[in-house]
Each structure stands twice: as C-alpha cells, then as structure tokens.
Amino acid sequence: MILFLRKILNTYLIPRFLFNKVIADKDFTELLNSTIDRSSLSYQIGRRLRRFVFFWPTIIDADSWIEGNFGKYRDPLHFKDLRPDIDILLLEKVYEYANSIESPVLDLGCNSGRHLEYLHNKGLRNLSGVDVMKSALLYFQERCPEAYKDSNIHHDFFQHFLRNTVDKKFEIVYSVGATIELVHPSFDIIGDMCRVAQSCVILLVQENSHSYPRFYVTEFRKNRFNLIHSVRPIGESNISLLVFNREESN
User: Fold this and answer.
1) Could you say which of 84, 108, 214, 222 would form a disulfide bridge with 11 (CB–CB 3.0 to 4.6 Å)?
2) What residues have CB less than 8 Å from 114, skipping those under 6 apart?
3) Burial of residue 235, with CB atoms counted within 10 A of its CB: 0-12 exposed, 13-18 middle, 19 or more buried
4) How far apart, in whole angstroms, are the C-alpha atoms of residue 33 and residue 164?
5) What backbone phi and psi angles, to 5 degrees, belong to 143?
6) What does the alpha-carbon distance between residue 250 and residue 35 come to, in Å, rounded to a whole number?
C-alpha cells in the first residue's frame, strides 16, 4: 500500500512547472564544478525545503554521484564491468532497434563507459553519453580511448543536458538504473527523454524501489510512447527491462 501511494505521489501529484522557475543554469554549474557554498543560507534553505516540502524542485540528490571517485561510495570501478544476464539484454535491444551504425544513440548515465564501449565494439558510430561524475568520464577516456574518442561525451546533469537538447535529436535513448530512479520527480525526466527520442526509449529500472518509484508505463503512454517489449523481472533480480516505442503519427 505504501509503495502504491509513493507511486501515485511521484507520478501524478508533484508539480513540474516549478522546476525551470526554481533551478537556474548557475545552480547546475556550481554544483557540478563543486563551487557551490554548501554552508550558504540559500543552500541550507534549499535542503530544508527539499526535506519538508515534498514537491520542491531539487538537484542535490546527485551530490554523491558528483563527488564520487575511486575508493568512495560512488566508485567508477563499480561500473566498469557488464552484468552478462542484465546489461547485455539492454544493449542487444539498443543494437536491434538502431536503424544503422550512424543512428544517434544517447546513454543517459554513461559513467565509466561500459555500455558505450559494448555498442562501439558492435559497430555503432554515433554514440553520445552524459554523466555528472567527472572521475568516471576520465576513467572511461583512459580505459577505452577509442570508444571515448568516437563518442560525444558530456559532463553534465541529466536535467540540464535534456532541457538544452532539441526535440528528436537521438534515435534511441537508453538508461540504466539510478539515472531516473534517483531524479526527483519535480523534473519531468520521462517527458524529456521522450521529447529528445525519435523512436525508442529503453530502460533497465527497479520499478518498485529506490527513492522515486513511479508508474513508468503510464508516464510513457502520456508522452505517446508505448511499451512494446518487457522482461519483468530479469531472472532472480528486481530489475526490469522496458522498451518503449513512439506512436506513429496519423
């Protein structure tokens, strides 16, 4: 019952028109570059509003990812290896739905590049990735120089990157785990993923856990994307593979 109510809250009850009014470009830049003063009154007020006003827009959930580094809680080494029974299912679907090796594909939350490396080795050559953890992107560049060089890599928040991306820029958008599971629903990340995707959005998500569970199928349908393939769950895990396709225009 509690899970159901949380899904109702995150899917339907949090207003999203406030995000662009409250969160400015400088907020992303300061947090991303660690120039924000966490002792400042405005930062502390923001943290308290986030805690006590459930709908208040926030981007501070990404703090632990921005600060991640080797030996820390968010360690790039934790994301360097593919899970054969999970990640491969996602990546094979991305490869299957790409129309050509030049199909523009976006990895939201590319971290140390394990998924982009796989797709690059499969022959795709119009790959893009975005992540807030600079140390992970540097590790990607060091570990997989060819895949990194051939990809368009962005050190940025998902929210900032998406809201500055034109409609239907990418044929396929895909994401794994915390990319959307940990984004506060004051930002309509599903709506923006659908907006920038020409044809497909493919996800690996824990539908019933993490900070912000939601009714994924409902949110995608609202954006005219239909669920065309799913594995729920994958094996003994609590992870689902969801493939959404844009409705054809009449």
Assistant:
1) 214
2) 79, 80, 81, 82, 87
3) exposed
4) 18
5) -80, -35
6) 49
> What is the C-alpha separation between 175 and 157, in angstroms, rounded?
14
Residue with tokens 């349908």: 221
d(CA 48, CA 87): 37
- Length in residues, the chain: 250
How far does CA 9 lie from the centroid of its chain?
20
Chain position carrying tokens 């299912």: 89
pTM assigned to the model:
0.93
* Sheet containing 127-131, strands listed edge to edge, beginning at the edge strand earlier in sequence: 151-155, 127-131, 105-108, 170-176, 197-205, 240-246, 225-231
Per-residue model confidence as pLDDT tens for the chain (250 residues): 888 888 988 898 899 999 998 888 988 998 888 777 767 766 677 777 777 788 888 888 888 888 888 998 889 999 999 999 999 999 999 999 999 999 999 999 999 999 999 999 999 999 999 999 999 999 999 999 999 999 999 999 999 999 999 999 999 999 998 778 889 999 999 999 999 999 999 999 999 888 899 999 999 999 999 999 999 999 999 999 999 999 986 5
* Amino acid at position 89, single letter: L
